[in-house]
Amino acid sequence: MSGVVRSYCLSADGREKVFCFVYTPGEPVTSIYNLDAGITSICTIEVVRDCSLLLVPLEVLDNMVQSNLDAAHIYEKMLSNSLQRIIERDLVLASYTVCARYEWFKKTYPGLCGLVSKKDIASFLNMSSESLSRILRVFPDDESST
Predict the structure, then answer these.
(1) Are the C-beta atoms of 1 and 39 separated by less than 8 Å?
(2) SS3 state at 16
(3) Which residue from 65, 78, 95, 122 has the highest number of Cβ atoms inside 10 Å of its Cβ?
(4) pLDDT digits (tens, 9 = 90+) for 82-133
């Protein structure tokens, strides 16, 4: 993977809530899907910047995981890393101030501020666009996002 991808879900009132970003070269772009139970994702994956992606059909991935121990370990590691990021973000959203959330975002996702919209960053950090604009006045060098 190269480029920038975001995953979002729709809130009860129809607003997009950004769930995650993928932008590190080689990082897998995956959706929440349970191979055993056949549970499909409630999130939409969208390309934000031009990307190069390798698509592995779900049936092929399922067969690989079922028949190859190395593939199963890689899949398990991807799920574990994803769960770790979800838990970390949930803890940040639950316990950090809005300013501290933005500082965490800059540290955890270096270089992403200039690649995604302020609206998406605000949504990802569970704050209003107005709150993010106020924070960006404190960090004027970070206003390069679209």
Answers:
(1) no
(2) strand
(3) 122
(4) 889 989 999 999 999 999 999 999 999 999 998 999 999 999 999 999 999 9
